[in-house]
Structure formats: C-alpha cells, structure tokens
Amino acid sequence: MKKLYAILLLVFLGLSSCGPVIVSHRIGNPPPPWFYPNRLELVRYVYFPDIRIYYDLSARTYIYLDGGIWVRRNTLPPRYRNYDLGRSRYERIRNYHDDDIKRYDEQNNANRGRSNLDSRRRRN
After folding, report:
1. What span, in angstroms and rounded, lies between the C-alpha atoms of 8 and 10?
2. Chain centroid to CA 81: how far?
C-alpha cells in the first residue's frame, strides 16, 4: 500500500513539474496552441476582447456575432484569419459553463469599451 502511495505521489509531482495541466471533460482533445494556462483550472470559454470573439474549449469552436446573430464556427471569420491569437490578449471565463454565451456576454461585456468621458458637459 505504501508503494502505491509513493507511486501516485511521484506521478503527481512529475505531472505538476511538466507545466500547465488542463482539466477538460473531453480527454484527448488538446487546447489550441495559443491557450497555455499557467495553473490547474477548469474553464470552458476564452474571450478575446480586442476582436470580441469567444472560443469554446469543449466544442472547439469560435463564437461571435455575425449580423447581430451569435454563430459558432470552427474557424475565425475571414476578417480575422491573419490575426495572431497567440500574441493576443485574452481572458479566461471562469465559473461559466452554460451553452448560451449570449447571456454571459450581455451580463458582463455589454458596456465594455464604452466610456463616459465623452459624455461630460462642457462648461462655458
């Protein structure tokens, strides 16, 4: 029994020293090359705020607005095909695993990028 615990401990230490560990419900589907977490975490979506596109790690699809409708595609839209996601800023969406990203976006990103600095009244 002690040998089993020792082996499990060695395996755990060996895996933790190898780098990032990703927990996913789909075994054998690695994340895209631009996604390298620096710790153990369970996320489903990644958000690219500069281009306002989500990536679903479990379905391996990009989710974005196309003509006011949320669509899921396996590739980026043509206007972003040359966009380097590996060098882009992204945010991991923690604690949200629902299929409807529209609801999350409306609750969290509806006012993103807007500023009230332009709406100040000019004083004479």
Report:
1. 5
2. 18
Count Cα atoms within 13 angstroms, Cβ side, for 73. 13
**How many of the other CB atoms lie within 10 Å of CB of 59?**
15
**pTM beyond 0.85, yes or no:** no
Q: Tokens 């054998």 — which residue?
A: 28
| Cβ neighbours for 49, distance < 8 A, ≥ 6 positions apart | 89, 90, 91, 109, 112, 113
Residue stretches of the chain with pLDDT short of 70: 4-6, 8-31, 33-41, 110-124
Task: Quote the CA–CA distance of 14 and 18 in Å, as a whole number.
Answer: 7
Total residues belonging to the chain: 124
Residue 38 φ/ψ, nearest 5 degrees: -100, 10
> Collapsing DSSP states into helix, strand and coil, what is residue 51?
coil
Query: Strands across the sheet with 43-48, in order?
Result: 69-73, 61-66, 53-56, 43-48, 91-94
Q: Which residues pair with 91 in a beta bridge?
A: 47
